[in-house]
Amino acid sequence: MEGKTLYRSNTDKMVAGVCGGLAQYFGVDSTLVRLIFALLVFFGVGSGLVLYIILALIMPLEPLS
Questions:
Q1: Please, which residues have CB within 8 angstroms of residue 24's CB and are 6 or more apart in sequence?
Q2: Contacts by 4-9, CB closer than 8 A, 24 or more apart
Q3: φ and ψ at 61, to 5 degrees?
């Protein structure tokens, strides 16, 4: 069994591909992940933005296949 790896998406991205990569990893719609990040930005006093930036820096870009 091959393990799943978390990557930033090359194809499903609006800014850095973080939400698209998370959606692909967890098997959910990327719009849902984007909505969660937006809610965190507005109601989490910016914690969603900080989390997004950290993930954009540490998540590797999806390899081209």
A1: 7, 9, 12, 30
A2: 6/59, 7/59, 7/60, 7/61, 7/62, 7/63, 8/56, 8/59, 8/60, 8/61, 8/62, 9/62
A3: -75, 140
**Rounded distance between C-alpha atoms, residue 16 and residue 36, angstroms:** 16
pLDDT in tens, 17-59: 999 999 999 999 999 999 998 888 888 777 888 888 999 999 9
Q: Within a 13 Å sphere around the CA of 26, how many CA atoms are in the beta-carbon half?
A: 11
Residue 54 in 3-state DSSP?
A: helix
